[in-house]
Amino acid sequence: MARTALVPVWFAYRLAMGLALGLAAGLGGCGAGATLDQLPASMGGEPTDLPAKPAVAYQYPAVHDMPPARADTPMSDTEQARMEKELRSARDRQEVLYGTAPTSAAPSSAGAKKKPATAKSDQTSGATANP
Asked: Which ranges of 1-129 does DSSP label H, i.e. alpha helix?
């Protein structure tokens, strides 16, 4: 038996439709920017009080360029400890000066950790039993 001619016609039809849709989508965005600039504001164009466009387009930074190496070196441990001590003393002087110093005579123990609150006896560890 001979094959019918419907399969090649259907394939040609689908190919033509795909090309037509692709061409329409590709040409749909051409020239829309210049046309919208010329439309009056009453038809959806740019308003009259809109600031003028810059003469030179914005230059985006180069994404893959690495910054140059730093000229100065990071602080050593002793320098960092000295700076922290100076900052603590400056904070204490300001607290005394502005009257926000702690009321207790003992120095603040920022480095001391609080003990965790003890769990009540009727609490579980967070796990619930499935029925």
From this structure: 6-27, 32-38, 77-98
